[in-house]
Design goal:
This protein is of the alpha+beta class and 760 residues long. The protein has 28 helices and 18 strands. It is 58% helix and 14% strand. About 3% of the residues have low confidence.
């Protein structure tokens, strides 16, 4: 046998070695890219990290400032504060009780002492200050609490006496920085401030921490007035210089010397938040990382070449043994792959006559699929013959001429039927098998039953010998229910179709059984026959047109109690039991939601979300209990919507009456213009329009229409020579006689007399 070099051309070892080297070089290439891009990557990661911390800081501080403003606004609305603010008398005797009341109100906010340093109120008329610590004249309060910050009394009083709708000021005494929020109490009539509420917070407490050593940066706040709040004085001065020279803008900005500014803005208070990060440390780390990458890449390449050669020799030994075993000729010009391929091809040619057919046939799956087709589809005659033939081959035959379909919904108390430690699906399968065995035993001889699962129920195709009537099947099913419930604690509901001849009506049988199962809405368990449903005469209940209009009117007028009272009868248990069908109940509820949507649908996303949630629950209704739970949700939406409507109803009436007048002014010449036409145009009831128009405009709408027409007629009489009959037509009258009567009543003279008197 001729030997050849291990790493000669066309050999597997040579191909493997080249492949290993190529893969390794690809790895080295990507390492080189990482080597080049590492600085940018590290910087970007650092920027993302700092940006995330900055956003967290922004959120926390924004939440704090929102809390401050809410507290100030809440205090400004307290009656004790407003009462003292608007008093002009000296605070003597009984007037001091007003101060005591304000002090009591401020004590409520002592629970926020961890958030704020203090709260005080300056009252202009009395020149008085009240804080949580007590009450003093403005002079004394300034000397004891404000003077230490280096601000003059005049400057402090200016802050307190200006109209403040929410302004921050930074006060510093060299040892402590305090940020104060000022909010004025105004007179509604004159919009003049009478008091100012000041909420104080320690800057260090606000900032929490001015730096994070792990990334070598400092955090700062730039207020709306341009004040820089941050760490120590030296760092603050550095930040102010950068802010003055380059400005503070949202985003990431890099400056000379490796300094980076990462900034964001508050959406509420106008403040800007930024970090100043020194990147020199990262530059040193990057240089060190680059050196490490270069060194390890070089060492890795050398090790890779050595390991690759050893692996090739080791992995090639089995292939060499295979080639020797099959009698390879070791042709140096032919690779081992070709030798192996040629040998395999030869083996395949020798086995071309192998004729083995592997059948994979899942009988249970096919059986259920074919039975489902017979029940839910309408196959052609040829398709039906093929289906029945396939079922026959699978061992399923229909020996008798009569058919009925039973749909069984199993309701199991698993804790009593089983040990309680199995999975629910497995327990259900066991219960299903037990029920099938009992049914087969009870109906053996005169009935053949085939089973499949459909729509969450056990579907039984009952093939009857002809001697079995519906009453006989129902009797046996009732006996089976009792036996299974007593011995296995399995309860189930059966929906039974009428009995038909032949397989052509299996689809009808399934539809009838399905209709029976819908009656579970009324009867949770039992045997429900379609023949009984046909005889059953329910009293239909529905929302009449009058009741719909009444309920809609209640909802639009914001009268929740009347609307709920009108609907109480719908949800009465006696009424529910009288409703003709499961779908009838759903239809009534859908109709009710349409009415609610007509009344509230324009209120916005909040009410629309609530309505959508109710619609989803209607889709899932299965029993009376579901209807009772749904009633609470519907009443809740009605109360919410009516409350919202009540707030808007006054403005809405004004707008509607304005629309009514505009419609009359634009369409007075239309002979069909009437109160009804106006009501239809602005989409309100006739009674609603008439009542509110007269209430708002002090005149009936019909009379207003007449007045508008007469005014336009007077213009035409005085400014044109058009005939009186044409004028009557132009202003919307069917005939001149009606026009004449209306003109005489309103003007007191005839149209002709008016034209003469006005000189035309």
């Amino acid at each position: 046998m001729k030997k050849y070099s291990l790493f000669s051309r066309h050999t597997i070892p040579s191909a493997w070695l080249i492949s290993y080297v190529v893969v390794s070089l690809i790895t080295v290439f990507f390492n080189f890219i990482a080597y080049v891009k590492i600085d940018g990557s590290v910087e970007r990661q650092n920027e993302r990290y700092v940006s995330e911390m900055l956003e967290n800081r922004r959120t926390d501080i924004d939440n704090f400032t929102n809390l401050v403003s809410n507290v100030a606004i809440e205090i400004s609305q307290r009656q004790t504060v407003r009462k003292l603010a608007f008093t002009r008398d000296e605070l003597k005797d009984e007037k001091m009780m007003m101060v005591h009341d304000v002090l009591n109100d401020l004590n409520v906010y002592k629970k926020l002492e961890n958030e704020f340093d203090g709260i005080y109120i300056y009252f202009y008329n009395t020149d008085y200050c009240i804080s949580m610590a007590g009450a003093n004249g403005a002079d004394l309060y300034y000397e004891t609490n404000i003077k230490e910050y280096g601000i003059s009394k005049a400057e402090w009083l200016k802050l307190m006496q200006d109209k403040q709708s929410g302004k921050y000021a930074v006060l510093s005494n060299g040892m402590k920085d305090t940020i104060t929020y000022f909010y004025s109490v105004y007179s509604v009539e004159r919009f003049v401030p009478f008091a100012t509420i000041a909420v104080e917070a320690d800057v260090k407490k606000l900032l929490n921490s001015s730096s994070n050593p792990s990334y070598n940066g400092n955090f700062y706040i730039c207020t709306e007035d341009g004040d820089i709040i941050g760490g120590d004085a030296e760092k603050n001065e550095k930040a102010r210089k950068i802010a003055d020279e380059y400005g503070i803008e949202r985003g990431v900005r890099n400056f000379k010397g490796g300094l980076t500014m990462i900034c964001t803005e508050s959406d509420g208070n106008g403040w800007k938040y930024f970090y100043l990060v020194d990147n020199s440390l990262f530059k040193k780390l990057i240089r060190s990382a680059r050196a490490d990458i270069a060194f390890f890449n070089l060492v890795g390449i050398l090790i890779m070449l050595l390991v690759a050669k050893l692996l090739v020799k080791f992995n090639y030994n089995p292939i060499r043994k295979i080639i020797d075993a099959i009698g390879g000729n070791h042709n140096a010009r032919v690779s081992e792959y070709q030798e192996l391929g040629n040998k395999i091809t030869s083996v395949m040619r020798e086995n071309t006559e192998v004729n083995h057919r592997i059948k994979s046939f899942d009988s249970d799956f096919v059986r259920e699929a074919l039975l489902t087709r017979l029940l839910t589809e309408t196959p052609s005659e040829a398709e039906k013959i093929e289906i029945l033939e396939t079922l026959k081959n699978a061992g399923i035959v229909f020996p008798y001429a009569k058919f009925a379909v039973l749909l069984i919904y199993i309701d199991i108390n698993l804790d009593m039927f089983f040990d309680g430690d199995g999975d629910a699906e497995g327990d259900y399968r066991l219960a299903r098998v037990a029920l099938i065995n009992i049914l087969d035993e009870v109906f053996e001889g005169k009935c053949k039953i085939n089973y499949c699962d459909l729509n969450g129920s056990l579907c039984c195709i009952a093939n009857l010998d002809g001697s079995q009537q519906t009453e006989d099947v129902v009797k046996k099913l009732g006996w089976v229910r009792k036996l299974v419930l007593e011995n296995l604690n399995i309860n189930f509901t059966v929906g039974m179709s009428n009995i038909y001849s032949g397989t052509d009506d299996l689809g009808v049988c399934f539809a009838e059984a399905s209709e029976c199962m819908k009656e579970r809405f009324y009867d949770r368990a039992g045997v429900i026959c379609y023949s009984d449903l046909e005889k059953k005469n329910h009293t239909e209940y529905c929302l009449t047109g009058i009741k719909e209009g009444q309920i809609l009117e209640y909802l639009r007028s914001g009268n929740a109690n009347s609307a709920i009272h009108a609907l109480d009868s719908l949800f009465d248990e006696k009424i529910i039991s009288k409703i003709g069908s499961f779908y009838a109940m759903k239809s009534i509820l859908y109709n009710l939601i349409i009415i609610i949507n007509r009344a509230f649908g324009q209120m916005g996303d909040d009410i629309n979300e609530k309505i959508s949630g109710i619609l989803q629950k209607i889709d899932k209704i299965e029993n009376k209990s579901d209807v009772e739970n749904l009633q609470k949700d519907i009443y809740s939406v009605i109360e919410y919507g009516c409350a919202q409507n009540g707030k808007e109803i006054t403005n809405r009436i004004d707008i509607l009456m304005k629309k009514a007048k505009e419609y009359v002014d634009a369409n007075y010449a239309d002979i069909n213009l009437s109160v009804t036409a106006v009501a239809q145009n602005i989409d309100v009831s006739l009674q609603y329009l008439s009542t509110n128009f007269k209430k708002i405009c002090k005149i009936g709408l019909a009379e207003y229409i007449t007045l508008v027409r007469i005014e336009h007629a007077k213009e035409l009489l005085t400014e044109t020579n058009i005939s009186i009959s044409d004028i009557a037509e132009r202003v919307g009258y069917v005939n001149s006689r009606s026009f004449f009567r209306s003109f005489m009543r309103i003007v007191g003279t005839s149209p002709k007399g008016y034209r003469t008197s006005e000189g035309n």
